[in-house]
Amino acid sequence: MIAFLRARLWLAIFCCLYAFNSTALGLAYANSNNLKQVRINTDSMRVSSLENDLKTKTILTSEKAHPEPLQIYISLDNQEMTVFRGLERIFSTNISSGKKGYDTPRGIFSVLEKRKRHQSNIYNASMPFMQRLTWSGIALHQSNKVPNYPASHGCIRLPRKSAKMLYNVTSYRDHVIIAPERISPNVIEHPALFQPHKEHLVNFDLRDSKSGYDIIDSTIRIYNDKPLRIYITRKRPSEIVQNVQIGLKQLLLYEGDIDGAFGKKTRDAIVAFQKLYGYKQTGKLDKSFRKRLSIKSERAMLRDGVILVRQNHKPIYKADIDIERPTEPLGSHFLITSKFNSSKTKWIGSTISTKIPRSVVRFNDIELNGKKRIVGNIQQALSRLKLSKDIKFEIERMLTAGSSLAISDNGIGTETGKGTDFIVQTH
Prior knowledge:
Elements: H1 2-32, H2 49-62, E1 70-75, E2 80-85, E3 88-94, E4 107-110, E5 113-115, E6 130-132, E7 139-142, E8 156-158, H3 160-169, E9 175-179, E10 186-188, E11 201-203, E12 213-215, E13 220-222, E14 228-234, H4 237-250, H5 264-276, H6 287-297, E15 305-311, E16 314-323, E17 332-338, E18 346-352, H7 358-364, H8 378-384, E19 385-386, H9 389-396, E20 404-407, E21 424-425
Parallel strand pairs: 1-9, 7-8, 14-20
Antiparallel strand pairs: 1-2, 2-3, 4-9, 4-21, 5-6, 6-7, 10-18, 11-13, 12-16, 14-15, 15-16, 16-19, 17-18, 17-20
């Protein structure tokens, strides 16, 4: 009898200790991940187990303290790199960029790959603490020779201590902004900037062409916390030319190929259209001509701009948008979310001087007023972008911490591709 009572006593003590340890472990896990303990009464919830899991995940994730985004700003004129966490400057260092003939590209990049030890297969040189910016060979890395002037073959050379320090604080997809001038992030406020929605379980139906936008990933998206990469730029000239060629062909004024090339046959067809309907015979493919062609051919006119979204290096969304006063340059701008939570975010950002390619200037009749490099106004650029409520809503309910927005006249650069974010080249 005594043995039986002792056994029951030890069993009771064991159960108490197990319950205590389980609770302590749960609290320790919550504290270690900066999460609040969440208790859910499943008996009162009349939802499926999948919805239950999603709600729990959303609650836990929304309670995380999202770190402020890391941004790396490089000034080529000053041969200097400055690293920011949000608006706070972490550290600065001297650099050495590409020498003449091997100029370091300017623009908005992100970290694509990191390696503590890397050997260049182009120059057979050691590149410790390498952080790749393009798949064509541009990277940040340590070097034993970092003079205060351009001396590399295009990469950004860093002193050993700075290269190691930078390597230890960066993550994949952190942004690197390379410009001639010295720039830094500032708070940007504008009603056009996206704000997050709490709902993260979204059924994306594949839209038809009449809707004006396209959900590229038509599967059901279940709460994805990867940051969005949003890019607003001008429509590709070839897409607009193709649309015009189809419209002119419908009116039996164009006999060439639908190839998107603005050559003699297309120009002659535009003149023939203008002559036929009594318009001034300019041969220009401007907005007024495209509006008239749209009416006569009963074919929708393509808009001047496009908004594109990538997530986890994959395109997921695309929509046409209008740009007010399209002959004025937008400039190049970079913005990123700050102090993000599930219902509200601030935005910080900067403006980068940019050289607009000649082909873009000619096609859009952009007025440069003799300037080689343009420094746009970010508030004016945001005000000129006309996004429908549907487009804004679709993006806002995908918005996550660390999402960024780039704006530029320069289109999609040659470096943007598989395994990259949008690489905005400002030349």
